[in-house]
Amino acid sequence: MLNTDAPLKPWYKQFWPCFLFFLPLCAVVAGIITFFIAQNNSPVLVSGDYYKEGLAINASKRLEDNAKTMGLSTKIISTATTLTVHLNGKNLDAENLFVRLLHPAFDEFDTALVLTRIADNVFQAHVKLAKSGKWYISIKDQTNEWEINTTFYQD
Fold it and tell me: What architecture does CATH give domain 72-154?
């Protein structure tokens, strides 16, 4: 027989209703937190002028093809304070090279440099890279005749 004299607790003081409401409540709170994180940390991986950059790819490919026909290749050495580029191939008369260093994920670390000749086909600049890891590098001569795009790893 059932004991009908025992007082019943209200529903909000019982275990199962509170447990069943707790799980969806956690999902709602996690969704709100995720929304605010996404709003405050917007991604910057896509350029705002992506159409013009897409059109410029053909010009960049032409410059890369010129570097290949000239037989140019690079060896990049990066220390804590300097970036040195050794060009292999044709002996160049350029006194400077223009370099763009692009971080793959954070555009605030991107930088542009002018490397100065220190020996035959050896160019150097003083720079302290803000982050270690993989970097994309674009190297051009001062006459904008050729371009080499490659990657290197900063320790």
Answer: Sandwich (2.60)
Q: Once rounded to an integer, what is the mean pLDDT over residues 9-26?
A: 88
Does 79 score more than 60 pLDDT? yes
CB 18 within 8 A of CB 24: no
pTM for the model: 0.65
* Domain limits, the chain: 13-40, 72-154
For the record, the structure tokens of 54 come out as 């897409």
Rounded Cα distance, 152 and 142, in Å: 22
What is the pLDDT confidence band of residue 44, given thresholds at 50, 70 and 90?
low
